Amino acid sequence: MIYDAIIVGGGPAGSTCARVLARGGARVAILDRAQFPRVKLCGGWISAPIWDALELAPRDYPGGLWEWRTCHVSYGGEERAIPSHGWFIRRFELDDFLLRRSGAELHLGTAVQEVAREPGDDGHWTVAGLRARHLVGAGGTHCPVARVLAPKRPSGPVGVQEHEFAADPAAIAATRAGRDGEPELLLHEDLRGYSWNVPKTDWLNVGSGTVEPHEVRAAWQRARQYFTEAGHVPPEAAAALDAVKGHAYYLFDPAHVDGAVRGNALLCGDSLGLAQPLTAEGILPAVLSGRLAGEAILAGAPESYPGRLRAHPVMADYARVFRAREAAALLRGPSTSTVAPRSRLARRAVARGFAWMFSGARLPAPRLVDAGLALAEWWAARQRVRVSAS
Ligand SMILES: Cc1cc2nc3c(=O)[nH]c(=O)nc-3n(C[C@H](O)[C@H](O)[C@H](O)COP(=O)(O)OP(=O)(O)OC[C@H]3O[C@@H](n4cnc5c(N)ncnc54)[C@H](O)[C@@H]3O)c2cc1C
To answer: CATH number, domain at 106?
Structure first.
């Protein structure tokens, strides 16, 4: 038997792609090395656009769901409660739910070691003894399909450490920064990462992420000390933080999108590297890319997948944020400042801007933003020419 698509990885990217394909009448198999529900290191933060992408209303989601409207941001020694909006879920519940409703044939406990393609541009793929017309890599950062297909990435991954654990709900309620589900974010002084402490009734999720994976351990130690000394982790639960684990994944880069498809094989989610360039939100782009990959296959035009990614409003915003980040880095030069700005106004702007991004809000006036970015890029290039000439 020949499947229309084999999907390696049953996380949000793989299960969403499978659902789109199965609903379109395709015969789909998902292969995942894990048995579900499985643990996936994740804060479990999701932002508003995900509901449309999942075609699901929050009230219809059967797992634990924490909606929040205030974000507690600490930066430069100041704490602010900032209006913002989002949700938290538990990943082992969300991923299991999405996988079970995908309609795909599930091959769980199947670790894919290698993938092979028959000769010819649209030769069939063979994976773990199954044959298919299309292959979708959705196996996360170390996806075996990406190992074969993805071009070299221009920059390295971000590093993240995290632990989610059960604790006494009364003790959590007594120590959290705000209401149940409201995140506490600790922005690192140098803005090269942030840490979080999220109460989910009888669970706590505490973690840190940094631009450079080698910086994450030190950042985690500082964050742990901060949350503990601020009294925001119940003392009896503090030892549980020893069990923190780490992982790395890639932020969005336009160059990643160029490598999203090769012939009849497509990459989505973390296997491609699509997380939001500043906040590192990864579930939303995983779901979106899974959808778009499935739609491209159903349309009989897998080669249209990168174009569909670029044209999607959320991914177009990611491209703008990426450009802004690059232009800012050029303008700032090789800054080694490790402290927050001295100006209170600047610290406030950073904290508010971050809370706003954390809500997954779309960039306003895209054309104006594009014009501003073009100007910033031009100016940054000019400055660079001046520096190299002097
Ligand atoms: C500590 C941490 C915290 C995070 N917090 C957040 C957050 O709060 N919000 C957010 O939006 N994003 C967060 N992210 C990012 C987010 O978790 C990912 O971007 C997202 O899970 C990507 O989904 P995916 O479907 O591409 O991959 P995954 O969810 O990683 O799924 C990949 C699947 O492939 C399977 N697989 C891997 N290799 C093989 C193989 N060889 N054979 C068969 N199966 C295989 C795995 O078992 C897994 O089930 C966080 C990441 C980390 C590391």
So the answer is: 3.50.50.60
Predicted TM-score (pTM) of the model is: 0.96
Q: What is the DSSP string of 146-203?
A: HHHHPPPPSS--EEEEEEEEE--HHHHHHH-SSSTT--EEEE-TTSSEEEEEEEETTE
Pocket test for ligand 1, best of 32, 91, 241, 287 (most atoms within 8 A of CB): 32
Q: Are residues 40 and 94 in the same domain?
A: yes
Q: How far is the CA of 209 from the centre of ligand 1 (A)?
A: 15
Q: Which residues line ligand 1 (CB under 6 A)?
A: 8-14, 31-34, 40-45, 111-112, 138-140, 142-144, 160, 162, 207, 247, 249, 269-271, 275, 281-284, 286
What residues pair up with 72 in beta bridges, in sequence order?
81, 184
Are 180 and 264 in a shared domain? no
Say what the alpha-carbon torsion angle 89, 95, 101, 105 is, to the nearest 10 degrees.
Answer: 180
pLDDT, position 91: 97
Same domain, 114 and 222: no
The helix-helix angle for 366-389 and 313-332 (nearest 10°) equals 30
Q: Whose CA is nearest to atom 44 of ligand 1?
A: 32
Range scoring the smallest mean pLDDT among 68-82, 106-120, 264-278, 334-348: 334-348
pLDDT band at 61 (very low <50, low <70, confident <90, very high): very high
What confidence category does residue 328 fall into, taking pLDDT thresholds of 50, 70 and 90?
A: confident
Atom 8 in ligand 1: which residue has the minimum CA distance?
Answer: 43
Nearest CA, atom 4, ligand 1: 42
Task: Indicate if 376 and 348 belong to the same structural domain.
Answer: yes
What is the extent of the structural domain holding 130? 2-44+90-155+250-311
Residues 94 and 235 in one domain: no
Per-residue pLDDT tens over the stretch 1-28: 899 999 999 999 999 999 999 999 999 9
